[in-house]
Amino acid sequence: MRHISPLATRRRVVGSLAAALLCAAGLAAPAAARDTGGASAAERPAAAERPAAAEPKLPGNLALTPPMGFNNWNSTHCRAEFDEAMVQGIADVFVEKGLKDAGYQYVNLDDCWALPERDANGKLVPDPKRFPNGIKGVADYVHSKGLKLGIYTSAGTKTCSDIGFPGALGHEVSDARQFADWGVDYLKYDNCNNQGVDAKKRYTAMRDALKATGRPIVYSLCEWGENKPWEWAADVGHLWRTTGDISDNWSSMLSIMKQNLPLAPHAGPGRWNDPDMLEVGNGGMTDTEYRTHFSMWSIMASPLLIGSDLRKATPETFEIIGNKEVIAVDQDPLGKQGEVLSSQDGRWVVAKEMKDGSRTVALFNETGTAQPIATSAKAVGLPDAEGYTLRDLWQHKSYNTAGTISATVPAHGTVLLRVAADGEWSKNPPAVELGLSADPLVEAGRPQKLTSKVTNLGRTSAQKVSATFTGPSGWRIKATSPSTASSLRTGKSLSTSWSVTAPQGAAPGAYDLTLRTSYRSPAGTRAESVLPLTAHVVVAPPAGNSAVSELPWMSTVNGWGPVEKNTSNGESAAGDGNPLTIGGVVYSKGLGVHADSAVEYYTGGSCEQVTAQVGVDDEKGAKGTVTFEIWADGKKAASTGVLTNADAARGLSADVTGAQVVRLVVTDGGDGRDSDHADWAQPVLSC
After folding, report:
1. Residues of the chain predicted below pLDDT 70
2. Model-level pTM?
């Protein structure tokens, strides 16, 4: 499924509906009852060419750990830059940048590699402009680098591209034979234009065709999770998509992660849940969010298929995708997918059992402010011990802990730890946790009082402890209580009060602050812990009633494109919306969003009420199901329940008295995010 837009499902729905109408009219046999899948007599494979009924199931010893590699779609789609030179360039980068040594091996072609029509013999024809040496030529080059080549087609009459390249439905044996003859090592098999044929039958047919070639080919089912492939595909494919397509934004990545996490019992060697390719490096998220993306895909034992053009990648991108300690979590031979231990209020603890008996623990912060997240060695399944070794997989540093596994995690961040009862813990300095009493919301020129805390989590004492707090040039940050301690025993803390002042005239927006502590172990080893924080310079809202769409927001998250002011969401580009329209009624002011969405406003404790008319925008026709929510200081103050496009605008109001921050939230209504364009019409904040 292509993520060109939330409309991407239209082609396959229309294709299936057309087939059904033809059947009803007596013009065609039901697709599920035909072997041809809509192929012409000249194109369809001969009966003798089809796999025998007794053909063995999926071969073993492939994809015993999640496949790692590259796929071009997220960075190029069908654009002309997807060609032989790009594929060869990616293979070169794999070798030159050490990605091959880190475990990446597949260089995969996605849609648009072929001509739109088969040849006179029903064979696929590589696009001679994109691939002048054919697919075999590309495969030979990739293989010469010690790497493997992957290819794409769809389990339908056409692929997912609007151009309509030939799919493999009814051509499974012939196409599989071509792939094998070209030297293909991996097949991604999509789900578009499937003509309503049963998914299990379609994907099993290609499994058998691949097996019949005798070539070991990793088989990836891109079925989008529509028919719960995790329940039936373990002997059909080596991996199966569990969701729709990912997009390069926080909301999309988060939604997909949440859909994939509950499926842990179905994963294992040779049978992987696939939450889609990586977006790391494509530019739509921050480096903190990309580290979360990579951390969570790794702890979920997901395939790691790089989706950015590595020829243009930044050093930060290579640092993320090349982190061998995080990759080792994904590639652990035990093959367990991490399981959710808790997720209260957006503070996630996910733990993964490792083959050596250790546990990898992700402390993931879904929220927009730094949050303390904690668990224990016992809770993640480790045996009782005097102490534990705690390894930070992003800092590449080891500590000891008495059993508490805890960190204050930056907004949208993940602390990824590997914890072991290994008897070596005493060689490491104690782990400490840094925390701050409140989210730094600062009005320019006015001091804000904050309190930091340094807590010793280790079995050994932390000595010569000091705390420092720094900000941008021109900011005044001063300790107003002691910022040092001679020693902290297990569980003890150093609390320090700070006065934080942004310069007069500082523009509203986000600014980076850094809280840092340094200390020594009893053996004299120096250690340091750093907590990056985001301060917001805010402006108190005016007294009276204000149109929310005219106020400056603190932050936004949106499921498709940017949040729009006074227009609908439109599509992915800024400013491409239409007049806000719900049930035929047009509204002049408001916010156009797409689930999952959150828009935050500073209210400074001086406001009382938020009101709005809300609903699904008419621009999506009959599509769209959403829920509107108003949150005040992290607590839900009002909700509409699920609304559809058939519902007229509904009034929503919430008491936000005393709240510092108000958040306007739209969720997907529980059925996925497709076409969930939602309007906050005529929203008013009363202060």
Report:
1. 1-56, 59
2. 0.87
